Amino acid sequence: MSVKIAPSILAADFANLQKEVEMLNTSSADYIHVDIMDGMFVPNISFGLPVTEAIHRHAAKLLDVHLMILDPDRYLPAFRKAGAEVLTVHIEACNHLHRTVQYIKDLGAKAGVALNPHTPVAALENILDDLDLVCLMSVNPGFGGQKFIQGTYDKIRKLRQMVNERGLSTMIEIDGGVNQTNAPLLMEAGADVLVAGSFVFTSPDPIHTIKNLKGL
Ligand SMILES: O=C(CO)[C@@H](O)[C@H](O)COP(=O)(O)O
């Protein structure tokens, strides 16, 4: 099975958001990755609920919502209502992660947990069995267009081993600095989903770029 691609809408032309979403609808993308930044957990503010709801209104793809916000429990029902199919919270932003993950599931969404580059995959030891997705950040979160951190490969291999040993179907998602050069290596290391922002949206033909990233 080919890797899933989740173009990050953060890199889209916000002045033509409907057009950008419609373009993704015609592509082989599997999800639309929606980056929510609060200016507190990460040093940037992106957009929030009304924009997510507007993306959902035009999207034929599932929304993979990445909450880079402190105390995300406050907003989980609202983002679910706005169209999130996957809700991913940061391990570094949750005091009671197990409760947060159950809350996401109770809302009927798939539960994801993201790890910053400095956080070891061993931190997932007691929560992994409950997760639908783990997002390994391959850049420090907050901005698109950053350089891929090489140490990510080792984290993917370790996590792939944990997932396989437990017989889980938890997806491994890689987020940040993904491009045509590292995509095959990320797949080989064990990634299931690749988030790609600037590489897709700054390319002359995003539909073709998405197809290439998938290895089709
Ligand atoms: O969450 C983030 C950044 O915090 C990512 O989703 C980026 O938006 C990916 O963008 P590129 O690195 O592919 O440009």
From TrEMBL:
Q: Which gene encodes it?
A: rpe
Check the record and name the Gene3D superfamilies matching this protein. Aldolase class I
Q: How is the cofactor bound?
A: Binds 1 divalent metal cation per subunit.
Q: What class of enzyme is it?
A: isomerase
Q: Which organism is it from?
A: Cecembia lonarensis (strain CCUG 58316 / KCTC 22772 / LW9)
Give me the residues that bind substrate, please.
Answer: S8, H66, G142, F143, G144, G145, D175, G176, G177, G197, S198
Q: Which residues form the active site?
A: D35, D175
Manganese listed as a keyword: yes
State the superkingdom: Bacteria
Q: In which pathway does it act?
A: Carbohydrate degradation
User: PANTHER family under this entry?
Assistant: RIBULOSE-5-PHOSPHATE-3-EPIMERASE
Instruction: Return the EC number.
Output: 5.1.3.1
Entry similarity comment = Belongs to the ribulose-phosphate 3-epimerase family.
What SUPFAM superfamilies does the record tag this protein with? Ribulose-phoshate binding barrel (SSF51366)
Q: What does this protein do?
A: Catalyzes the reversible epimerization of D-ribulose 5-phosphate to D-xylulose 5-phosphate.
One term of GO molecular function? metal ion binding
A Pfam family found in this protein is Ribul_P_3_epim
Q: What is this protein called?
A: Ribulose-phosphate 3-epimerase
GO BP term (any one): pentose-phosphate shunt
Per its UniProt record, what HAMAP family does this chain match?
Answer: RPE (MF_02227)
Q: Which GO terms describe its cellular component?
A: cytoplasm
- Which reaction is the catalytic activity of this chain? D-ribulose 5-phosphate = D-xylulose 5-phosphate
Q: What's in the keyword line of the UniProt record?
A: Carbohydrate metabolism, Cobalt, Isomerase, Manganese, Metal-binding, Zinc
So where does a divalent metal cation get bound? H33, D35, H66, D175
Which cofactors, by name? Zn(2+); Fe(2+); Co(2+); a divalent metal cation
Q: Has keyword Transport?
A: no
